[in-house]
From TrEMBL:
The keyword Methyltransferase does not apply. This is Homeodomain-interacting kinase 2 isoform X3. It comes from Pelobates cultripes (Western spadefoot toad). GO terms for molecular function: ATP binding; DNA binding; protein serine/threonine kinase activity; protein tyrosine kinase activity. PANTHER family: DUAL SPECIFICITY PROTEIN KINASE (PTHR24058), HOMEODOMAIN-INTERACTING PROTEIN KINASE 4 (PTHR24058:SF46). SUPFAM superfamilies: Protein kinase-like (PK-like). GO terms for cellular component: cytoplasm; nucleus. InterPro entries: Kinase-like_dom_sf, Ser_Thr_dual-spec_kinase. Keywords: ATP-binding, DNA-binding, Homeobox, Kinase, Nucleotide-binding, Serine/threonine-protein kinase, Transferase.
């Protein structure tokens, strides 16, 4: 959905590590319980700290290359620090200022929906029934604009 809306690949990694790196850069690390249960966790993540305070972190590009012999590659045209940065590639067309406000409101609702759909923890991810009532889908955020329908 994000790729259709923006016209750009959201996570254009050449490898699983690159894609996981892009995801963690924009959305943070997966929850510890997911990392603890993951079958490939130790390929991409490392555990740091002492016995009482263990913390997962993404392996650096150097550590990943050392462990696997695979060199990570940067494939992104735009580097996002969060999903909110998608506004950098979704540029409203030249419209009247009131129409630009409408379009920006629509973009922010879209980004909110994408963030809910891509929540790392599946228990926190938007359900299909809730998705159908999200303002981006219902366009409820556009109702107070008289020229919108």
């Amino acid at each position: 959905m994000a790729e259709l809306f923006t016209g750009r690949i959201l996570y254009p990694g050449a490898s699983e590590y690159d894609q996981i790196r892009y995801i963690t850069e924009t959305q943070g690390l997966p929850p510890d319980n997911m990392l603890d249960r993951g079958t490939k966790t130790e390929l991409y993540f490392r555990i740091d700290g002492d016995c009482e305070d263990l913390l997962w972190s993404l392996k650096s590009k150097i550590h990943y290359e050392y462990d696997t012999g695979i060199r990570p590659m940067e494939r992104r045209k735009y580097v996002f620090s969060s999903l909110d940065d998608m506004t950098k590639v979704i540029i409203p067309s030249k419209l009247e200022s009131s129409d630009t406000l409408v379009e920006m409101g629509d973009i922010w609702q879209f980004i909110d929906l994408i963030k809910e759909m891509l929540a790392m923890d599946p228990c926190k991810r938007i359900t299909p029934i809730d998705l159908l009532s999200h303002p981006f889908i219902t366009m409820a955020h556009l109702q107070h604009f008289t020229r919108s329908s």
